Each structure stands twice: as structure tokens, then as C-alpha cells.
Amino acid sequence: MAKYGFYFDNASCCGCRSCQVACKDKNDLDIGVLFRRVVTYETGVYPTADRFHHSAACNHCSSPACVANCPTGAMYIDDADGGTVQHNDDECIGCQSCVKSCPYSVPTFIEEAGIARKCDACIGLRQAGEKPACVATCWTRALDFGDVEELEAKYGSGLVRELPFIPEASHTEPSTLIRSRESALNGEPVEKSL
After folding, report:
1. Domain boundaries, the chain
2. How many angstroms separate the CA atoms of 160 and 176, rounded?
3. Which residues have CB under 8 Å from 46's CB, separation 6+?
4. Which end of the chain, N or C, is more open, meaning fewer C-beta atoms within 10 Å of its C-beta?
5. What CATH topology corresponds to 4-192?
6. Cα–chain center distance at 188
7. Sheet containing 37-43: which strands, arranged edge to edge?
8. E strands of 17-99, at which residues?
9. Which of 35, 61, 41 is nearest to 53 (CA)?
10. Model's pTM, two decimal places?
């Protein structure tokens, strides 16, 4: 059975945040609410200093902590959609168990609605034959989405599922594949706000 996930190439990402804006627009999110976040990091010291960007959304994990800790089943794995992690707003009681349990800080509590929400990999757009909004808008083609095995075959060897500044992949088995710059794999990157 296919397992869907994102591909991200931080060697190609220029940090423009168009993916973040497209996601925010598509989901009609208020100020301060993001389902996809682009963070800029710096690493090393002169003369070997480097800067890179990391774009992250829901990892659609194979063993998602948000699903395991949701008391109502509002957060669930959609086997019909390649094992993506989806959220049923009508079943959500706003307890924020998913928010507190996700090691990647993905689910977000929407105060006005009284429920949690998160990236659904634009399931509606994909069912209509389109790409997720973040993927469609990325002009450097640093993002892709699809069957994880097909993404691995398409983008080749050297892909990783974790980086030193994100939680270990063994905890939740994220379905995000990353082509990483060497500087993101080594050292201790420092987050920089722009």
C-alpha cells in the first residue's frame, strides 16, 4: 500500500516563503497561524559560515503521536489517502492533546473555532487532480508530494528523514524526505528571524 509524504530540498530552497504564504492563503489562516513554516538557520563561523532554510509542515507520520493521543478520533490516519494524517473538525473537542503530543509542533489550536487544525496535504486539491498549494507555488521546485517510494526513486539516494535540529525520526516515523545541505547535517545551526 502506498504511503504519501512530502519531499523537501533545503539545498534548493531560497527562503522566499511562498510555500508558507500559499498554505496560509489556501487555508484562510489568521495572523500568527501557520500550517507550513519556513525557518532560516545559520551555522559555522567565518570563513565557513553558511545559511539555509527549512520548510516544514505535517510529516504525515506512520506512527503519529497526535493520532495516538487524540481521545475522540478526530485526528486519524486516512488509509484511503496514502496514510496521510487527517483531522475531522466535527469530532474535535478542543482538548489540545494533539497539540501537546506532536514532537514537531504541527497541530495548532484555533482559539476562535475552539478546535485544533493542521496541514492536510491539501487533500481537496489533490482529489481534484492538483498539487498541494505549497508544492504548486514553490518556484525553485524544492517541494514535492506523493508516494514516498516514488519520491525516493525520483530524487535518488542521500535523502534523510531527520536533521540535527528536529526530533528523531524513530519516535513517529515521519513521511517527509529531505535532501539536505551538508551544513544542515553538521554542527549546531542557530535559528535566525528575518
Report:
1. 4-192
2. 8
3. none
4. N
5. Alpha-Beta Plaits (3.30.70)
6. 21
7. 50-56, 37-43, 190-192
8. 37-43, 50-56, 75-78, 84-87
9. 41
10. 0.92
